[in-house]
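README, section 4: Worked example with a bound small molecule

Sections 1 through 3 covered apo chains. Here we extend the same pipeline to holo records, where the ligand is supplied as SMILES alongside the sequence. The molecule in this example is coenzyme A. Nothing else about the input changes; the structure line simply encodes the ligand pose together with the chain.
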Amino acid sequence: MTITLARLDPTGADRADLVAFLTGEDFPFHVRRTIARVDAEAAIDAGAYRDDEHDTYWLEHDELGRIGIVRLEDLADPVPLFDLRIAGRFRGRGLGVPALRATTDHVFRTMGDVTRFEGQTREDNVAMRRVFVRAGWVKEAHYREAWPVEGAAPVASVAYGMLRRDWESGTVTPVPWDDDVIASSERGR
Ligand SMILES: CC(C)(COP(=O)(O)OP(=O)(O)OC[C@H]1O[C@@H](n2cnc3c(N)ncnc32)[C@H](O)[C@@H]1OP(=O)(O)O)[C@@H](O)C(=O)NCCC(=O)NCCS
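The generated complex, written as structure tokens:
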């Protein structure tokens, strides 16, 4: 089973299919759970899916066909982010990890200046958090009450990262969480 990224043309040949995908799916862990047609079209026309900072790809499965999209963000920066959205009928079928691996491989293989790759999700998006961990990404932050939820209390936003050097070597560099190190080095001054 392979998943590949196919760059889409959001304002041209792929516009209608992209609008249909964005407006036809439910995204329970995004700031906006559903996207109105007018908003999808306005965002596409404003460059949110392809401009200097963004680029978007269909996720294509060799047997199932098109299973979703991934949008890359902050592309003018050496540390881009992504937004991965698998179509509802393909969720919960083990496609999250290969989709994230294909995205990570694409970014590091085709973007030589990218030193690290980042992603964030809501704390209650268990499937996405498991995907990050299973794909070898490292949790780097847990921003308490940072994710606004309409009509409810905010939840935490959890941040994960992948270093190019870890991707190249297949290693995992842990986060040095222990602040006692700072305290002991201050004592030594
Ligand atoms: C989040 C998303 C990418 C995960 O991909 P997926 O293909 O649905 O997930 P998988 O089937 O690969 O499952 C990954 C893990 O999460 C678990 N899982 C899947 N759906 C789950 C759910 N609804 N609740 C709890 N756990 C779930 C699976 O059991 C699996 O755990 P395991 O590794 O211990 O076996 C996908 O569901 C999606 O696109 N959701 C909507 C958009 C979104 O939230 N994107 C994330 C923003 S970055």
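What to look for in the output: The longest helix spans residues 96-110. Residues 27, 29, 68, 83-86, 91-97, 119, 121, 125-128, 130-131, 134 surround coenzyme A (CB under 6 Å).

Section 5 describes how to batch many such records.
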